Amino acid sequence: MKYFSLISLALLLAGTSYSQVIVNAAFQEGRALAPNSLAVAFGDFSEATAATAASEPLPNLLGGVEVAIDGLAAGIYFVSKTQVNFVIPSGVAASQYPRRVPVQIRVKGIPIVAPLTTLIKDISP
Question: Is the pLDDT of residue 18 over 60?
């Protein structure tokens, strides 16, 4: 039941119907993310296979899902049909001011339909 509460919270924060949304690990949508921080993407990943990373370094392909932030592969630690948890790559360029960067999520090699972006900043809570 806790799982569904988290999804509902993220969708409420997103202010949209059920579509792809990226939030920080505290489920705050619209806040900047920093390199090496945890992020969560909610959406329709129905073709993915549920999986949890078993070791470090985190894989760039898990359950048939790949995530790229500003063209750099992200380490993925959890995948389900509605959620992907990943780490913002350390090589993503960040500065004092937030900037919008592209996010590409592929499921079994096919990009998700909605183009995504997220804010990146050098330091973010």
Answer: no
